[in-house]
Specification:
Blueprint (H helix, E strand, L loop, with lengths): L2 E4 L4 E6 L10 H4 L5 E6 L17 H14 L6 E5 L1 H12 L6 E5 L18 H7 L10 H6 L5 H8 L4 H4 L5 E7 L7 H10 L3 E6 L10 H12 L4
Parallel strand pairs: 2-3, 2-4, 4-5, 5-6, 6-7
Antiparallel strand pairs: 1-3
Helix pairs in contact: 2-3
Amino acid sequence: MFYRELGSGDKSILFLHGWGCDGSIFENVAKRLKGYKCVLADLPGFGKSESPPESGWRVEDYALSVWYLVQKLQPSPRYIVAHSFGCRVATVFAALFPQAVDKMIFFAPAGIRTFSLKRALRVGSYKLRKLFRCSNPDKSYGSQDYRNCPSTLKNTFVKVVNQDLSIYAKRIVCDVLIVNGTEDVQTPLKHARKMNKLIRHSNLVQTDGDHFALFYTPSAFAEVVRLFLEGGK
């Protein structure tokens, strides 16, 4: 898996991006987290990482690939910051490898079933694609997403969006901060509320804005991360 490291410090943060994006979406946030080594990963199939086999991956496969990455990093990241699809991966990772995670921050989390998968969600704007260098901003569900998938990811997409990760969320034991935009139509607030109920040591914070709200203000995003990691709940 391709990754980049920004900054330096005794503590390390792993950043996991949303569907259709890559690690660079977190670059402006990571640059503001002085004193931390920030690891910006390109999940398989995105950015500079190789794609999963055409037979497709489940979220568990992504979580295992993250485990292999974490094993070779020094210092090993004890914190995870994830957005949307990245929250799916982090949810399974933390459930399978609880000893590897101390705290996580989920922004606009996906992966908890609250409505029919037939409900297609809106496509991100060109402005977002350009701003965040995403080929297709994370919409998480819907036929439009499937049509936009490269052929190598179509089977993975189908497998991923059909997984309800509630059973994994219940197994998470670390502290988790969940942040969700009040105007997010891609992963609506009800997703975050349900995840908050499932994860025993979690808190939910609502923020103004949409699916990418915190990325518009990287300084504020970085401050949220810092405050939580340095003692916040």
